[in-house]
TrEMBL record:
Residues 14-244 form the Peptidase M24 domain. The gene is map. A divalent metal cation 2 binds at D111, H174, E207, E238. Substrate binds at H83, H181. It comes from the Bacteria. The keyword Hydrolase applies. Monomer. Its EC number is 3.4.11.18. This is Methionine aminopeptidase. It holds the Pfam family Peptidase_M24. A divalent metal cation 1 binds at D100, D111, E238. The lineage of its organism: Bacteria, Bacillati, Actinomycetota, Actinomycetes, Micromonosporales. GO terms for molecular function: initiator methionyl aminopeptidase activity; metal ion binding; metalloaminopeptidase activity. InterPro entries: Creatinase/aminopeptidase-like (IPR036005), Pept_M24 (IPR000994), Pept_M24_MAP (IPR001714), Pept_M24A_MAP1 (IPR002467). Removes the N-terminal methionine from nascent proteins. The N-terminal methionine is often cleaved when the second residue in the primary sequence is small and uncharged (Met-Ala-, Cys, Gly, Pro, Ser, Thr, or Val). Requires deformylation of the N(alpha)-formylated initiator methionine before it can be hydrolyzed.
Length: 272
């Protein structure tokens, strides 16, 4: 069942979204050569507790994971793209790390992710991150009232292919609101003017993710971490978005992004 949110409910989600955006920006600054992934995890735990928020990841137990998730971040490095378990790993020069988080405040949830390069960036990695950011903006711009869900999916896939990347449709975006995962599923590939109508009040997480040279994935033995099947580098970007009568409203913008989207090339370079 899809629950359309009122303007007041979207405003309450936006409070959560602001915190998520600010903390992701903070964590992006903390991520650096020599920093342990567990340092990022514990930094996030502390900030979430200070805010009185609740992690949506802690104790999350979907069908594909092995046991409940006992972290507040997904930290995916290099060929890992989704659901990476924080662990004892020290970031190295040139690593690509995706930081993904979802929290709830006063019963309303927001979810977002960003990929950054620590240390010396490889131009191919910056291009990959840029592609996910451009695809995310294209998906957001396609989330117009009266449009169709396929408009979002098709916009993401068009960007991916324009950069020369394939698209995997096994994992994508999702509805969000009172819980982290609600209907509908938002694929990263689809046909325009197809699928459910985008009515005002719909709130979704849009999350393009690409692998450099494959559209196939594999799971680690932990049952959580998803990697590119061929070991190539990956990147992932995500925002929580509300469809409103005035157009799409991004609820998880990071401070550096401002009210409107920034040049994705500059964002990628700044992230490095």
């Amino acid at each position: 069942m899809i629950e359309l949110k009122s303007a007041e409910e979207i405003n309450r989600m936006a409070v959560t979204g602001q915190f998520v955006g600010e903390l992701l920006a903070e964590l992006s600054g903390v991520a650096a050569v020599g920093v342990n992934l567990m340092d990022l995890e514990h930094h996030a735990r502390r900030r979430i507790a200070e805010r009185g928020a609740e992690s949506c990841y802690w104790d999350y137990a979907p069908s594909f994971g092995r046991g409940p998730f006992r972290n507040v971040l997904c930290l995916s490095v290099n060929d890992a793209v989704l659901h990476g378990l924080p662990h004892d790993y020290v970031l190295r020069d040139g690593d690509v790390v995706s930081i993904d988080m979802a929290v709830g405040i006063d019963g309303w949830v927001a979810d977002s992710a960003v990929s950054v390069v620590v240390g010396t960036p490889d131009p191919d990695d910056l291009k990959l991150i840029e592609a996910t950011e451009v695809a995310l903006e294209a998906g957001i711009n396609a989330a117009q009232p009266g449009g169709r869900l396929g408009d979002i999916s098709a916009a993401i896939a068009e960007v991916a292919r324009s950069y020369g990347y394939g698209v995997n449709s096994e994992f994508g975006g999702h509805g969000i609101g009172r819980t982290m995962h609600e209907a509908p599923h938002v694929p990263n590939n689809g046909r325009p003017r197809r699928g459910m109508r985008l009515d005002p009040g719909l709130t979704i997480a849009i999350e393009p993710w690409f692998c450099r040279s494959t559209d196939k994935i594999r799971f680690d033995k932990d049952g959580w971490t998803i990697r590119s099947a061929d070991g190539s580098r990956t990147a992932h970007s995500e925002h929580t978005v509300a469809v409103t009568t005035a157009g799409p409203q991004v609820l998880t913008r990071r401070p550096s992004e401002g009210a409107t989207s920034a040049d994705p090339t500059k964002r990628s370079a700044a992230a490095s």
